[in-house]
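Researcher: Structure for this, please.
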Amino acid sequence: MKTSVRTMHTKKYTILFTVLMYCSFVMVGQHSTILAEELKSTLNTYYKNKEFNGTVLVAKKGTILYQGAFGYANIEKNINNTTNTKFLIGSATKSFTAIAIMQAREKGLVELHTPIKKYIPELNDELGKLTLHFLMKNSSGLPVHLNRITQLEHRDISSKELIKLYNTTKLAFKPGSKYEYSNLNYQLCAIVLERVTGMPYKDYMETHIFKPLNMHNSGIERTNKVAKDKALGYDLNNGKFVKSDDNFMSYAKGGGDIYANALDLLKWDSALYSNTLVNDKSKQLLYDGSPNAFGTYGYGFKVKTYNRSSSKKITGKLVRHGGSMYGYICNIHRYLDDEVLIVVLGNMRPYPTMEITLTVENTLRNYNVL
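Model: Predicted structure, token format:
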């Protein structure tokens, strides 16, 4: 049986295509390996200089490009940080709270521009005129921290007690007139969420965010309920690590009380590229940070632009949030146009969080990942 010239050519093209595809996969694999090794080397330098202790994860479109852990979760017991170690994420909690509010909005439970006295009647008239829009935009005029108006205690303070504290304060400026970051904004959002859903804030987050995404290593911490396998927080004093003070977790309600590990944050990041948590309209509002009185702050996300690699020649949208508490600092960068995630979780303070993040970003750009 004779083989036609066309069949022979077809076979040659098929073999050539297969070889080219194989070579392409090999090159991508080598490329990723080199990238990972470079990131590991860079981060190890920070660790050796006592400028980092924690874990870093880098992913693109849900695929992990690099993940590594450095230093100790518990220095006294010689327990290493691992890629599964949990960390407090501080103010990055605000991104989660904003998403929960948008879920409530999608269900028709809240309106963003309605005075919150509708949901919390006990608020005084001045605070009652605030809206979820002003709260989530950090444009309310409320104090930055609760410790400005009360002595914090290591106990689980109730929502009713928090409301009484809020009613003792005065707004520093007309709501909506400027941007001024305040943890109280998101604490009030959490209490609104409780009122309209009939669920404690902690239960709502577990039921509607953590469990649906299989975020089994994430949760809300309270004074008497501390996560197992969570890294201890440390302060760097004169070159030595000292156990940090305990955080006042229930006073951080909705604004800084979440713990997570890097893999869970990847699950959360991936879900935000679909409608698993919120719809497209909600995401548009979450990421709306055009320059104005709100300091490029969206709802629960700080909104920036980033330079993409020279081959792409356009800027992209970066939505991010960091967090800082006693003994912990984190940074979460989400590069929307390239679906890239950088997570930096540390259990020491201080360390150059943003410098580390931007060093990783520049490395990714050099490899055309961004």
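Researcher: Any notable elements?
Model: The first strand starts at residue 54 and ends at 60. The longest helix spans residues 5-48.
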